């Protein structure tokens, strides 16, 4: 357990940041899941729309430090490629 007042304050700050970051990560995963579900359903228009909504959320998560920027770019790139392939197949 924290002994000094500064360590106690740090514990409180970390708890607040953790809850904020958990919410941001959850929101990002929800948007990514919507894109993956649209791809699985085979609906190219729905997948493209879901991707358009998901990209800013993923990039914002990277900007806020929830995930690394290269991880965000990789996620967006792979989702985009899958949506593009789905549109080409349809």
Automatic annotation (TrEMBL):
Q: Which Pfam families match?
A: Ribosomal_S20p
Tell me the Gene3D superfamilies matching this sequence: Ribosomal protein S20
Span-the-membrane segments of this chain are none
**SUPFAM superfamilies attached to this UniProt entry:** Ribosomal protein S20
Gene Ontology cellular component? ribosome
Question: Which UniProt keywords are listed?
Answer: Ribonucleoprotein, Ribosomal protein, RNA-binding, rRNA-binding
Say which domain of life the source belongs to: Bacteria
Keyword RNA-binding included in the entry's annotation: yes
Q: Does the keyword rRNA-binding apply?
A: yes
Role = Binds directly to 16S ribosomal RNA.
The UniProt entry's sequence similarity note says:
Belongs to the bacterial ribosomal protein bS20 family.
Its name, as the record gives it, is Small ribosomal subunit protein bS20
Q: Which organism is it from?
A: Methylocystis borbori
Q: What is the lineage of its organism?
A: Bacteria, Pseudomonadati, Pseudomonadota, Alphaproteobacteria, Hyphomicrobiales
């Amino acid at each position: 357990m924290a002994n000094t007042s500064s360590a106690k304050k740090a514990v409180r700050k970390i708890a607040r940041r953790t809850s904020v970051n958990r919410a941001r990560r959850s929101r990002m995963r929800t948007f990514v899941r919507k894109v993956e579900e649209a791809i699985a359903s085979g609906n190219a228009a729905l997948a493209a729309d879901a991707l358009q909504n998901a990209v800013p959320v993923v990039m914002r998560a990277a900007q806020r430090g929830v995930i690394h920027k290269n991880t965000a770019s990789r996620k967006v790139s792979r989702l985009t490629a899958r949506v593009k392939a789905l549109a080409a197949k349809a």
